[in-house]
Amino acid sequence: MKNDPSATCVRLVNLTFYAHHGVHKEEHFVGSKYEVDAEMYFDYSIAAHHDDITSTIDYRLVYEKIKSALTQKKFYLIEAVAYTIAMELLQDFSLLDRITIKVRKRNPPVGGVCDYAEAVYTAKKS
Q1: Does residue 118 fall inside a structural domain?
Q2: To 10 degrees, the CA torsion angle through 46, 48, 49, 52?
Q3: Integer CA distances (angstroms), 96 to 42, 53, 62, 70, 123, in order
Q4: Which of 5, 6, 36, 71 has the highest CB neighbour count under 10 A?
């Protein structure tokens, strides 16, 4: 029985990093707290059936790729961060059919009280 990969998802939730992104020069200097959620859609039925990590996506590698994108590069927009992470993960993990990346910037400089700004980007293999 073939599983529908659009119905199976693994999520990494609230990966937290300190990074230096933003439109204002001060944001690149001071930095801010960022949170990332990754929703990875793929057929993991073989891995589940055999309880075998070699048939699924290694979450540690996903974490490292997200960490690198967020902490080793500089962006003006969290939209660009979400897009870059999604594209890199789709390219690097052949099992992925679709991915949704959410990037939250805590306490964004909006001129008032705001818990966070969030950019969500969803992409799928063509």
Answers
A1: no
A2: 80
A3: 5, 15, 11, 21, 10
A4: 36
Per-residue DSSP letter, 50: H
Per the domain annotation, does 122 fall within a domain?
Answer: no
**Under 8 Å between Cβ of 79 and 121:** yes
Q: What are 20-77's pLDDT values in tens digits?
A: 877 767 666 667 889 999 999 999 999 999 999 999 999 999 999 999 999 998 888 9
pLDDT for position 27:
61
The three-class DSSP label of residue 86 is: helix
User: 3-class SS at 98?
Assistant: strand
Sign of the CA dihedral with 14 first, then 18, 19, and 21 last: positive
- Does 90 fall in a domain? yes
